[in-house]
Amino acid sequence: MAGSSGATPGAMTPVTPAGSTADSEKHTEFQENEKILSQDFLSSDQITDLLKEADIDGIQEKMRVFLNFKNLQTCLRDAILLDYYVSGFFWAKDMDFSLDQYSKFMTLLDMLLHNLQTLHMSLEDSIKWLGEVMAEIGPNRSPRNEGLQVFDVKEANAIIDYLKISLLQHYRLYEFMFYSTREEIVIGTE
After folding, report:
1. Can you tell me the distance from the alpha carbon of 6 to that of 98, in angstroms, rounded to the nearest whole number?
2. Closest residue by Cα to residue 42 from 67, 8, 59, 7
3. DSSP character string of 49-106
């Protein structure tokens, strides 16, 4: 993604040496999720800048600049991705998220697309991955996850519901967009 920090989210399960215990595997997986969550798709300044915008056009334009999308009139893929991120941002705005919650939610949106586009994750694997990540950043009584808890139960459920209707329901279309070979269609005006 153009706007991501360049670090590849560690969505794949790390390989552990033979003879390692289940606890060490869980600890390694926890560290991997912790690394995933530390990546910010949008900086705090960018989120604050977006929140200052009063209308959708302003948010869309700033998001376009942040993502470095230059040809929205002729690149359907960029237009779709911009819509995906702007819609997610507006949904988060309706949820009245904190700055940290915005950051984690937008990073989650980006990582789900990264998993699909780069890692070619199936819908089933993406759902499993989402469940694992939400277990780490959602409500959890485990003291080892205390610093990662960003969302309460209601918010975590709302996020999952949102992702069901926004990305997961249309997963095959996103796969098609990323994987299909198609001729360039030139859109222009005379």
Report:
1. 25
2. 67
3. HHHH--SHHHHHHHHHHHHT---TTT-HHHHHHHHHHHHHHHHHHHTT--HHHHHHHH
Distance CA 73, CA 188 (A): 9
Look up residue 189 and give its DSSP letter: -
- Residue length of the chain: 190
Residue type, 22: A
Q: Strand, helix or coil at 113?
A: helix
pLDDT tens-digit readout, 32-51: 444 445 567 899 999 999 99
Question: What's the token pair of residue 111?
Answer: 């990582």
The CA distance from 127 to 46, in Å, is: 28
Query: For 137-187, what is each residue's pLDDT tens digit?
Result: 766 555 554 555 788 889 999 999 999 999 999 999 898 888 876 544 555
Cα distance between the two ends of the chain: 32
Pairwise CA distance, residues 38 & 157, whole Å: 21
